[in-house]
Amino acid sequence: MKIVRFSQAGKINRGILRNDRIAVIAGDIYGDWRETEEAVLLSHVKLLSPVDALSLLCIGKNYKAHADECESDLPAAPLLFIKAISSLNGPDTPVLLPCPNVSTQVDFEAELAVVIGRTAKSVSTADAFDYVLGYTCANDVSARDCQFGDGQWARGKSLDTFCPLGPCLETELDPSDLKIEGRLNGKVMQQARTSQLIFNVPYLISYLSQGMTLTPGTVILTGTPAGCGFARKPPLFLKDGDVYEIEIEGIGTLRNSFQK
């Protein structure tokens, strides 16, 4: 089931996407909800981030090839960083390139995102999927000059609009071996399968829930494959007018333009 969050005539709703129509739902997607008799055409609404996330937990260097292009050892444990909620963005919505005095090295990162659906605390890997509401595409947009120059990653990962999610939240999906692809202006930059993750989805949920409560609405970005712009020779950074698409098997395509 593909759940979307959308705006129409100034009102925000959620619904179930079926082909070109959205069946509006009422209630709490993290609790009790129901499908109503109301339906709208997809072409008549603006899709938003499928979740109004409460926290954005991100995992770094979780594909071997990406760790290699970073010229670093494989992590012994999940490498956690956090993006600010103010970075949250939706599909087909511009990512704003910062002023040159803030960053001139904005980069793309295609990722599978996991959305937690119920409170998770000290869960086992065997039970981890019981706490998942669904999955979506994410772009962990990164200002590399901030990231590498600040001595920590928070600012470079958290600039406004730097976390697009979408286009939908897929609730019926096995995340263990999905194709993930990132395309810049139609050209493939990143391509991998989630089976290549160093730390897989249930491990990440279990690991993070030890000592940290994962509340409903928590989003976990699971890491990006190789092919990022900063590691290319010469480096390739995003510029005004670029479009980056992230397609994940079974979910769909997240598309965002980059604008000054």
Query: Helices and strands: which structural class?
Result: mainly beta
Distance between the termini: 36 Å
Low-confidence segments: none
CATH architectural arrangement of the largest domain: Alpha-Beta Complex
Rg is 18 Å
Would you tell me which CATH topology of the largest domain applies? Fumarylacetoacetate hydrolase, domain 2
CATH superfamily of the largest domain: Fumarylacetoacetase-like, C-terminal domain
Number of strands: 19
Helix content: under 10%
What number of domains?
Answer: 2
Shape: globular
Main CATH class of the largest domain? Alpha Beta
Round the mean pLDDT to the nearest integer and report it: 96
Elements, N to C (H/E)? EEEEEEHEEEEEEEHHEEEHEEE
- Give the count of helical stretches: 4
- Beta-strand proportion: 35-45%
The biggest sheet amounts to: 12 strands, mixed
